[in-house]
Design a protein that fits this description.
Layout: H1 3-26, H2 31-54, H3 63-74
Helix pairs in contact: 1-2
């Protein structure tokens, strides 16, 4: 597994969140719909946080990849 692959996953979470924001701005949503999209965004932010904490500690990754991830994720 390469560092870039794991960082891409985290970047994809941001990309999805941006897409949801864009879609939300183009639609007229009811309050329940807007609340559900807000919940989805919150869940994505939680997932990103979990991934940032998890990836550098995965034991099956090489020490080099874990170190690279730690350094790269410290900048996020």
């Amino acid at each position: 597994m390469r560092t870039e692959d794991l960082l891409r996953v985290i970047g994809d979470v941001d990309f999805i969140r941006e897409d949801i924001d864009e879609i939300t701005g183009q639609l007229q949503l009811t309050k329940p719909e807007a609340r559900r999209l807000s919940q989805a965004i919150s869940s994505l932010e939680t997932a990103k946080s979990i991934l940032i904490d998890l990836f550098p500690t995965v034991r099956s990754l090489s020490a080099e990849v874990r170190e690279e991830l730690s350094a790269a994720l410290a900048e996020i």
